[in-house]
């Protein structure tokens, strides 16, 4: 991609409305534009990151056995009357009427709708387990939308829903999703800690919030230092092996980790002072077992091996891709801008032509762009006539992991300069070596 033909509306000044660094940097890097209270457009650079985040989420959901569907954003109130949530949900739900005066709503979540799909088709325990997910926009009329896409009103959510014959099956489904979440966040360069979360009237211990530690987090959280050194299961983890999956969950739920609402002073005080991590955290994911909460009122049942009807035992599993991007920036930036982890960077390489229009610089840049693209790399080629200082500032701001700098002096010596955005390390390489390194 040539920057001269791209749409990258960089802001030079810090936007006054942005209180936290991720919001500031997303606006400055031209990733998003605010359209109203808690409502954002995703501009080309932001959209690329959003797509990469969703791709990783998808791959890990699929690996764990979940199946992707897509449900509408606008739902009928009648479905929500069946579960009793139409009245119970309160002011966060955006209620709409269609031209026939029918009550509709913009989905804040999809338990009712997915239960409706399930009950229409699935009749036997032999068709279980089943886990259906989608990645779809949600609307919640938050009291205080703030911090950009961190807490917006319209936001993207991956929500998965598991259906099982009984509690044991539902617990295994919960475990699989737990492990899928560990892998998902790690692949994005994040250290997410599963913390015990409130189960409310459902009870039990199957509710965890996945929390990123960050000063700007909205929740107060407490955990054992051990979590910071835990290794996340690799790609070879066997989701078909319930004992292996349960073992991983066991390890990741043994040391103390709880959000404010679940905090237990007695258990906390038993931990040695140095091992206590009390910090602010960002909730990027939440998994929850709720049993028959929806299947019972909505009559979603299957015939069991005993020949009797059983209400299915369900769970739901959310991740906020839009919030995640803000959380990643909170965790990975410096005074010059964003520092993307490679896996979700909008492009792989910033190719910087320090003297666009110079025949030799242009020739070398074209050669590098072609060779790296052929090797499957996404290159953002700054071919504009901006001054080098401005080009470097832009490249640092948008935070691509590698900058490849082509200058008249370098080209005369047959060399280009490679800069690592994260470490700042610079190195002169021949053109062929640069291609080999990045390709
Ligand atoms: P919060 O406690 O921050 O209000 P929540 O507990 O209401 O979040 P869930 O219902 O558990 O959120 O939704 C699943 C995920 O969706 C959250 O873990 C978060 O990543 C994301 N999410 C929820 N609300 C928002 C929002 N207003 N803006 C962006 N992402 C959100
Ligand atoms: Mg909320
Ligand atoms: Mg919450
Ligand atoms: Mg939650």
From TrEMBL:
Any one Gene Ontology BP term: prolyl-tRNA aminoacylation
Question: What sequence ranges are listed for the domain Aminoacyl-transfer RNA synthetases class-II family profile?
Answer: 55-341
The record's GO CC annotations read:
cytosol
Any Pfam family hit: HGTP_anticodon
Query: Recorded E.C. number(s)?
Result: 6.1.1.15
Q: Which PROSITE patterns does this entry report, sorted A to Z? A: AA_TRNA_LIGASE_II (PS50862)
**Quaternary assembly:** Homodimer.
Q: Name one GO molecular function term.
A: ATP binding
Give the protein's biological function: Catalyzes the attachment of proline to tRNA(Pro) in a two-step reaction: proline is first activated by ATP to form Pro-AMP and then transferred to the acceptor end of tRNA(Pro).
Provide the protein name: Proline--tRNA ligase
List the coiled-coil residues: none
- Compartments where found: Cytoplasm
Subcellular location, principal: cytoplasm
Task: Write down the chemical reaction(s) this protein catalyses.
Answer: tRNA(Pro) + L-proline + ATP = L-prolyl-tRNA(Pro) + AMP + diphosphate
Q: Which organism is it from?
A: Aquamicrobium defluvii
> Of which family is this protein a member?
Belongs to the class-II aminoacyl-tRNA synthetase family. ProS type 2 subfamily.
Matching Gene3D superfamilies = Anticodon-binding domain, Bira Bifunctional Protein, Domain 2
Read off the InterPro entries from this record.
Answer: aa-tRNA-synt_IIb, aa-tRNA-synth_II, aa-tRNA-synth_II/BPL/LPL, Anticodon-bd, Anticodon-bd_dom_sf, Pro-tRNA-ligase_IIa, Pro-tRNA-synth_IIa_bac-type, Pro-tRNA_synthetase
What UniProt keywords are attached to this protein's entry? Aminoacyl-tRNA synthetase, ATP-binding, Cytoplasm, Ligase, Nucleotide-binding, Protein biosynthesis
